[in-house]
Amino acid sequence: ENTAARQYRLGVLEGDGIGPEIVPASVLVVDAAVAAVGAPAIEWHDLPLGRAAIDEHGAAVPAATLRALAELDGWLLGPHDSVSYPEPHRSQLNPSGTIRKHFGLYANIRPAKAINDEDAVVPGTDLVIVRENTQGFYADRSTYKGSGEFMPTPDVAIALGIITRDAVQRIARSAFELARRRNRRVTIVHKANVLKLTTGLFRDVCREVAADYPDVEVDDFHIDAMTVHLVRRADAFDVVVTENMFGDILSDLAGEIAGSLGIAPSINASDDRAMSQAAHGSAPDIAGRDIANPTAMILSNAMLLDWLGGRYGDPALCQAAALIDQAVTDTVRAGTKTRDMGGTAGTGEFAEAVAATIKRL
Ligand code: ATP
Ligand code: MG
């Protein structure tokens, strides 16, 4: 393998609400993990986004931020509180949607992992939903004339869903590549008995891609059957690949089954860039009080490191990601928790405890 250690350049977009607290806390954890595996330090680039960017630059996602991101390997996106923005910003596509669209981040990857078995509906759950992020029925992400919904008369509303071979191929490859770094099982979720053409194409193209991965076990389920399987035996799944709307619903279901929806991480990725993003919002009700839980952001960053490690064939980064996961679990089990998890640790205090655990692992 390539031994010349690559130095990664990552953006930091703090965002709104608790963003300026949880994002810096999560950067500190990445620095500790990268140092622990002996990889070169990350080169960080702070960039304006959200309410502060509206006030200073006149846009929630300034053009200069987009230009700077284009030069980077990936970035950390803090939460945004776009419903509180002044018009016209409130009515525009929100910051994460804007960035996702601009960079074609077609894969939304959301794990559901039971950290505390007492909190889990199905203990032992450890799966990842790979959601196609650009097609299906979801209007602002549809490629059909920029919108998937219309009303021919005031009493009739029509939604169009689109599925294309190219888009299924690339999301299927993301899922199978991820399965190779995990437990080599992929489950395809569709509704090919009713949405025969669209989700049927989704299933069929995933099956075609599966032929290139004979080492990965494959099965497929209808979306309705899948919800039943998840509730009963979520611990039996590894990687689940599905279209946009099914993925949206399944990832919340799976997160709650794992008992960790409040700390659920995610990344959004294209072939050459990835963005880490906590599944939760900007929590304006607790902003500025040093009580926010940085776990979702920290785990999202671990996913970003793992993705970079896979993308650039850099096992040290995958190892750094695994260290972060382990350290978060150990820290929580040792009793250091933020208030939402029943503890008393502050945002920075929790992150420092995770970093200290990384140094001991
Ligand atoms: P959005 O529409 O932006 O997703 P939301 O309405 O889902 O926002 P959140 O901002 O996710 O709302 O907050 C929901 C509740 O969870 C709030 O009470 C908030 O304080 C709490 N919360 C969210 N994130 C965290 C966190 N990281 N740490 C502690 N509490 C949190
Ligand atoms: Mg929300």
Keywords:
alpha/beta; single chain; IsoCit/isopropylmalate_DH_CS; about 15% strand; binds magnesium ion; two-stranded antiparallel sheet; 10-stranded mixed sheet; binds adenosine-5'-triphosphate; about 40% helix; Isocitrate/isopropylmalate dehydrogenase family protein; IsoPropMal-DH-like_dom; 12 strands; about 350 residues; oxidoreductase
How would you explain this protein's 3D organization?
This protein has 361 residues and is α/β, with parallel strands linked by helices. Helix content is 40%, strand content 16%. It has helices at residues 19-36, 51-57, 63-69, 95-102, 165-181, 198-210, 223-233, 244-257, 295-311, 315-333, 347-360, and strands at 9-13, 43-46, 74-77, 107-113, 126-132, 149-153, 156-159, 185-190, 217-222, 239-242, 267-269, 274-277. The chain has a 10-stranded mixed sheet with strand order 2-1-3-12-11-4-5-10-8-9, sandwiched between helices. A two-stranded antiparallel ribbon has the order 6-7. The radius of gyration is 20 Å and the shape is globular. 49% of the residues are buried. Bound molecules: adenosine-5'-triphosphate and magnesium ion. Adenosine-5'-triphosphate binds at residues 18, 22, 79, 280-283, 285-286, 292-293, 296, 340. It comes from Actinomadura napierensis.
